[in-house]
Protein: Glutaredoxin
Amino acid sequence: MKFVRWFLGRIILLLNFIFTPRSKKREAQAQQQLDAKTENFKLYQFEACPFCVKVRRAIKREGLKVETRDAKNNATYRQELSEQGGKVKVPCLRIEEQGKVTWMYESSDIVSFLQGLDKAA
Structure:
């Protein structure tokens, strides 16, 4: 079963590489505003997780700069996710705004939130 998951994960990564979405084009000032807004966002993820790929594709499509953290291969990030976020579940977007930290876990919720950033900015 572990081999099947590994193999399917590699297929997902290959298809993601082949069909990488294009980023939105914005004016420089609008892009800088979004970059400033997302500079404190962290995406905790596993590389080959299909839901994580979905969120990373949305980040790319929206043209956002969000730091990704591999919670599978980095014990520090995994511990942060467990202790601060409450559970080791990916994808998880850590949103730090005005000193308040929010942990968002569902991929569809994360994608909707990221798509709404452009409208809010």
Q: What stands out?
A: The beta strands are 41-45, 67-70, 92-97, 100-104. Residues 2-18 form the longest helix (17 residues). The chain has a mean pLDDT of 94.
